[in-house]
Prior knowledge:
This protein has six helices and nine strands. By secondary structure, the protein is of the alpha/beta class. The chain has a seven-stranded parallel sheet with strand order 3-4-2-1-7-8-9, sandwiched between helices. It has a two-stranded antiparallel ribbon with strand order 5-6.
Amino acid sequence: MTRAIVIGASAGGVQALSAILTGLPSQFGCPILIVLHVPQRNDSLLVELLQSRCVLEVKEAEDKEMLQQGTVYFAPPGYHLLLEKNMSITLSSDEPVNYSRPAIDVLFETAADALEHDVTGIILTGANHDGAQGLRAIGAAGGTAIVQDPQTAEVPTMPLAALAACPEARALSIDEIVLHLRQEAA
């Protein structure tokens, strides 16, 4: 059973995330942790925008916060987002990974370590390779690995890199990802 869902996105990710999050019902039972590469000046505007469109609670993650079911946590600009074994969040200002802070790989690798087969990782549209190694770690731990179908991604570089690193990942359209999540959390 999935205990948490981790999602990584970059270029084109706001639209993809909006489509996914607005497709989830209010009784959705899993916490969702998201790393989205955005310029640092756009910190809380995205959270406010998505909260206005979603029935789930959408918030910026806070250090040492315990995960709550049906809540969406965004990595704050300038901080890596890590998941601990006790289902709490840690924020880190360590060096950028793949030129990014927050880095998708950091979230995914810590989620794989913390939850092993009980995590679902999803890589969405983006113009770099961040998240590919993290998705491979989730797959290797027995978790569920999903990639936005590169043919449907605004920028296919990240999904293609993730599929190359984690060939067992399922390539799904945004609508198929929503359907999968709804079934998984039912």
